[in-house]
């Protein structure tokens, strides 16, 4: 089958189209014919080798972390799905590879596609929707009336997180550039901070939760707008000891992650707030909880551009260079 593979870690020149064997289907696996695949900054970072210390993929690697498609085969122990079902998923981190014609996904990581969405719309959601759910519902346990700040509210993650936080009953503030303020308001944000002309640290205070996708100075400044006991959850900040334990990392890697996040954790402790790093996990069950919100219109995908499958390399470049105006980029096989 045709796929886009990373031959060695590095820049865009290390990825190419190739013919690869069809996936092997295990007892609890579902073979999916992929109709569309989301393109994420995570794909760029995996290709660059940013996560090779704790995600040691065997190269060459088929890249891609989101999919929507149709079931074409099921393993003998599969109970949830049948041939012909329309599904969407973020495969488990050890079994990525959605930039391909087919993929085998464990049944636990798969869910029925929202009926109101096209394949391209559905493919844009799993990774960012699961990240938002795991941050706001699973970890922060956001309650009605709480104050939530979502950075980069027009981005792939931010655009979904704003809608989810609003659906949870929170007072939602988001940051965005001048041109994207109106879009983020349309997504449900109660307040939008134009980061080009405004400093969120001068305008905000007493927040319960910050969802950070930028890291660095932005994360450090975010700690200061939290109420005592509030928490900052980052997908771009330094990995912390809890993540190292969850990963089952070796002692050297655990020490490295502890050291990397030491400054941020010290700052949080001094302010009486909490910091945690989030690397999302695949979950069909959580997608099934999100699907009713999607079909009811409480969460709608924001798709910036759809590329044909044979232009996957161009789609990667588009994401890498930050050309998307809002939301997600998708490649479509049909």
Automatic annotation (TrEMBL):
Gene Ontology terms for molecular function: oxidoreductase activity; zinc ion binding
Enoyl reductase (ER) domain sequence ranges: 10-331
Top-rank taxon: Bacteria
Keyword Oxidoreductase: yes
Alphabetical UniProt keywords: Oxidoreductase
PROSITE patterns reported in the protein's UniProt record: QOR_ZETA_CRYSTAL
Keyword Oxidoreductase: yes
Pfam families: ADH_N (PF08240), ADH_zinc_N_2 (PF13602)
This protein's name: NADPH:quinone oxidoreductase
Organism: Streptomyces phaeoluteigriseus
Taxonomic path: Bacteria, Bacillati, Actinomycetota, Actinomycetes, Kitasatosporales
């Amino acid at each position: 089958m045709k796929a886009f593979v990373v031959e060695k870690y590095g820049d865009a020149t290390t990825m190419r189209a190739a013919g690869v064997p069809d996936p092997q289907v295990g007892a609890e696996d579902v073979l999916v014919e992929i109709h569309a695949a989301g393109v994420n900054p995570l794909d760029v970072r995996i290709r660059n080798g940013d996560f090779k210390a704790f995600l040691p993929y065997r190269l060459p690697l088929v890249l891609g972390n989101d999919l929507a498609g149709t079931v074409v085969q099921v393993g003998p122990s599969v109970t949830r799905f049948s041939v012909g079902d329309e599904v969407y998923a973020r495969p488990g981190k050890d079994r990525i590879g959605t930039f391909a014609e087919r993929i085998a996904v464990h049944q636990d990581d798969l869910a029925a596609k929202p009926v109101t969405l096209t394949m391209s719309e559905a493919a844009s959601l799993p990774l960012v929707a699961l990240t938002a759910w795991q941050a706001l519902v699973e970890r922060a346990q956001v309650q009605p009336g709480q104050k939530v700040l979502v950075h980069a509210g027009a981005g792939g993650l931010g655009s979904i997180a704003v809608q989810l936080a609003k659906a949870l009953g929170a007072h939602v503030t988001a940051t965005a550039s001048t041109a994207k303020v109106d879009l983020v308001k349309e997504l449900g944000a109660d307040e939008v901070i134009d980061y080009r002309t405004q400093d969120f640290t001068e305008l905000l205070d007493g927040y319960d939760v910050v969802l950070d996708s930028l890291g660095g100075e932005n994360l450090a400044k975010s700690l200061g707008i939290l109420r005592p006991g509030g928490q900052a959850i980052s997908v771009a900040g330094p990995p912390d000891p809890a993540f190292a334990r969850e990963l089952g990392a070796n002692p050297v890697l655990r020490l490295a992650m502890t050291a990397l996040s030491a400054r941020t954790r010290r700052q949080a402790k001094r302010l009486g707030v909490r910091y945690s790093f989030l690397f999302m996990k695949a979950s069909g069950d959580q997608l099934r909880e999100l699907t009713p919100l999607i079909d009811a219109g409480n969460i709608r995908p924001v798709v910036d551009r759809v590329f044909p499958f044979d232009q996957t390399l161009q789609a990667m470049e588009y994401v890498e260079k930050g050309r998307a105006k809002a939301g997600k980029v998708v490649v479509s096989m049909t």
